[in-house]
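Reminder to self: keep the SMILES exactly as supplied, no canonicalising. Ligand is nicotinamide-adenine-dinucleotide.
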Amino acid sequence: MFKKKNISLAVIRRLPRYLRYVEDLLNHDVMRISSSELSQRMGYTASQVRQDFNNFGGFGQQGYGYNTQVLYENLVKILGLDRHFKMIIAGVGNLGQALANYTNFYKKGFRLVGLFDVDPQKVGRSIRNVEIKHINKMREFIKKNDVDIGVLCVPADVAQEVANLMMEGGIKGIWNFTAKEIDVKDDVVVENVHLIDSLMVLSYRLNEKLIEKENADQK
Ligand SMILES: NC(=O)c1ccc[n+]([C@@H]2O[C@H](COP(=O)([O-])OP(=O)(O)OC[C@H]3O[C@@H](n4cnc5c(N)ncnc54)[C@H](O)[C@@H]3O)[C@@H](O)[C@H]2O)c1
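Structure tokens returned for the bound complex:
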């Protein structure tokens, strides 16, 4: 359906932002947008937007721009959001519980089907009607339910061990929140998340502004 070539990770990382933006246009009944308007509003160049979309065949028409509904549907397909992936969380502590309670994942097609922990105080309790099971039940659960994504929210020192259990069950993708870089089989996809990286980028930009101000004050 779409041109499948080696799409750079930088392009892929821009797609969710396009989707969010186009979704917002649709919510405001904007049914059509030019690439220059889209780019201006998003802070990209028009040629970048065209290039990004051309990776997937391009969805615009010369002189018309983009039909926002068509663009939205294409972005959903490209991102695989129409597949409704099944997801489990291993480690139901502060972060695991926050993620389990975040209903927007469900709205985007990620279905939370299992929660796993070792803590006897947590096992048996439920979050949003999903029961927390002991980690020793996870491998069979993944197999039986054909789970796609495993979310790793355990302490770093057991991350690889828990990731191995996920892979033995046949998990296809791991969303790794731990600080540990995990080793995975070739057919398993890993996405590492470090909120602190984003905070450090904020710190960098804040620092630049403060330096600018300090230099201006000294003049
Ligand atoms: N990437 C990020 O931005 C980010 C942000 C916050 C936390 N983290 C990381 O996420 C992880 C969880 O953080 P937290 O604050 O929720 O910690 P937490 O201590 O509140 O929760 C950890 C949970 O893992 C469980 N656990 C321990 N060993 C286990 C095992 N072998 N199998 C299954 N469950 C097990 C514990 O019982 C506990 O419920 C940590 O590795 C932390 O560093 C990452």
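Points to follow up:
The two ends are 60 Å apart (CA to CA).
The chain has nine helices and nine strands.
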